[in-house]
Amino acid sequence: MEFKSDIEIAQEAEILPVSQIAQQAGIDLSYVELYGNYKAKLSSRLLQERKDCPDGKLILVTAITPTPAGEGKTTTTVGLADGLSRIGKKVTVALREPSLGPVFGLKGGAAGGGYAQVIPMEDINLHFTGDIHAIGAANNLLSAMIDNHIYQGNALGIDNRKITWRRCVDMNDRQLRFLADGLGGKTNGVPREDSFDITVASEVMAILCLAEDVADLKQRLANIVVGYTFDDRPVTAGQLKAQGAMAALLKDAIKPNLVQTLEHTPVLIHGGPFANIAHGCNSVTATKTALKMADYVVTEAGFGADLGAEKFLDIKCRMAGLQPDAVVIVATVRALKNHGGVPKAELNQENLEALKNGMPNLLRHIENITKVYGLPAVVAINRFPMDTEAELALIREECEKLSVNVELSEVWGKGGAGGEALAQAVVRLCEQPKDFRFSYDLSDTIEEKLEKIATRIYKADGAVLSPAAKKQAQQLTQLGFGGLPICVAKTQYSFSDNPALLGAPSGFTITVRSLKVSAGAGFIVALTGDIMTMPGLPKVPAAEMIDVDENGRISGLF
Q1: What is the pLDDT of residues 342-397, one digit of tens each?
Q2: Can you tell me the mean pLDDT for 255-273?
Q3: E-strand stretches of 211-325
Q4: Class of residue 244 by CB neighbours under 10 A (exposed 0-12, middle 13-18, buried 19+)
Q5: Residues with catalytic roles
Q6: Omega before 120 within 30 of 0, i.e. cis
């Protein structure tokens, strides 16, 4: 069979007008704001006017700890939705928007792969409808207003050594991690140290994804703590009178985007916070809108279940009053063998010993979902042609010990047809009883929350706070922020804060080097290990392979 790249498959696919997709989903065109023929935004009126309608079933797709071998979480999410559609279910997908950083860097996009993709994939992976650009503009407007306030006399008494707000750009650019600006004389501003985050790590992104409506958006923007005064009082965006203009820049970005899968299943793509830095799931408005559109909603959370799923459950579900009906945990034989110590070059060979050594990673994620959070789960093995029957049997045997079933997912090569078995399993799972609970209580102290996440989810011996983090925890508690949930910024490659510790490590502690309140988003960010909020490009970035011809046709995009 001729091999085709993801972009070739996407460009050859039949794509329906998005107005037709909306009508198929039962959405009147008066709610649809077209961005060309194949993309649209949905009016906020849709959710408001359907608020009393019953919700569909909510299915969360998560995964094992990611490896260079690949897991295919988004691909499985899309294929599962198409599989549900094929067995007669009314379904909608709710996904995050891709960041340009990974697209031009190493990881790739976020529109699925093979015959389980969302289209138009080039648009989705590049500028899409401009949401992330709008978030960057709002973020940087606030930065400009902070520095202008200081330049114009600093009536609020902002200590420019204690400014916590960072500028942002949606690109992997390590050169911007630390810099000095305001140089060149009095008319060019006040000199200070500064830094950039990637836009998807901006608190504005988190706020957009957690806001219920425009009024809530403005209040959250006003609550942003941008820094502290000379006597350590917090300064907010509201005190700078920035929230109105920021919200004006975000008035369209807050509306969910409607597109389609290769098999024309409706997809809402909205918001894109990273899961290793931010909370890693699509917007509350998109998820709630999808739940009013369909009987089954398939969504995903970034990276492994220790990151994206933990934040989806402990932060998003807590804030939005959501409760998943089932969880799908994606794994591959290849990735499990990688966790078992096999280098990437040797993953195509059968190796039951390595697979058995890597299985504890999957089993730990299963245990977290079923035992810590009390949710029913199924394991989806994203099948590769070189997987052997003996390897697949071993995975089934080990998962059955935890009373969790395993289903094969062949959606990359077969689309929805390869996801029908998984879809049937998910439908059954949604009818099972659940006892959903969080991994910690909001009444816990900051230190207790960190300890519970570390010991219950990561299976660490505990969380160790640096002297600076201890002082910050005390200060945040005194300022009234101690009751907020925790958003841990941690490497995605390990349960620990050391990316080299694969599998299911034990005998380690999580080192929290600093704490920062995202008062607008409504959580405290805990930076652990060596995690960076501005990634860098790899030695050979994907950007070197991407091109466009004179007809506007893009190539090299996966």
Answers
A1: 998 899 999 999 999 999 999 999 999 999 999 999 999 999 999 999 999 999 99
A2: 97
A3: 225-229, 234-236, 257-261, 266-269, 296-300
A4: exposed
A5: 73, 75, 96, 107, 275, 303, 384, 412
A6: yes
For residue range 465-485, list pLDDT tens digits in order: 999 999 999 999 999 999 999
Instruction: Evaluate whether 423 touches 415 at the Cβ level (below 8 Å).
Output: no
CA distances from 345 to 7, 65, 137, 348, 542 (A): 25, 19, 43, 8, 20
Contact 250, 271 (CB under 8 A): no
Q: What is the pLDDT of residues 410-428, one digit of tens each?
A: 999 999 999 999 999 999 9
Q: Which residues contact 37 (CB under 8 A, 6 or more apart)?
A: 17, 18
Four-residue CA torsion sign, 190, 196, 200, 202: negative
Of the candidates 278, 269, 276, 332, the residue with the CA atom closest to the CA atom of residue 300: 269
Structure tokens at 121: 């994939």
Tell me which amino acid residue 276 is: N
Is the Cα torsion angle 101, 332, 343, 1 positive or negative in sign?
negative
Question: What pLDDT, in 10s, does the model give residues 194-244?
Answer: 999 999 999 999 999 999 999 999 999 999 999 999 999 999 999 999 999
Give the pLDDT confidence score for residue 517 in this predicted structure: 97
Buried-state track 26-59, b at ≥16 Cβ within 10 A, e below 16: ebeeebbbebeebbbbbbbebbeebeeeebbbbb
What are the C-alpha distances in Å from 193 to residues 166, 168, 461, 514? 10, 15, 36, 18
Give pLDDT, residue 108: 59
Opening angle at CA 398, ends 393 and 399, nearest 5? 100
> Which of 293, 282, 297, 258 shows the shortest CA–CA distance to 84?
297
State the maximum Cα–Cα separation within the chain, in Å, rounded to a whole number: 72
The predicted model scores a pTM of: 0.95
**Helices marked H in 301-388 — which ranges?**
310-311, 318-320, 333-339, 352-367
Tokens 């070059």 identify what position? 345
- pLDDT interval class at 29 (50, 70, 90): very high
Q: List 408's β-bridge partners, or say none.
A: 381
For 468, phi then psi, to 5°, come to -65, -40
pLDDT at residue 1 tops 80: no
The reported pLDDT for the residue numbered 2 is 65
- What span, in angstroms and rounded, lies between the C-alpha atoms of 162 and 15? 51
C-alpha to C-alpha distance for 400 and 398, rounded to whole angstroms: 5
Mean pLDDT of the chain: 95
- Amino acid identity for residue 501 in this structure: L
Write out the H or E segment, with its range, that includes residue 233: none
Give the separation between CA 100 and CA 169, rounded to whole angstroms: 10
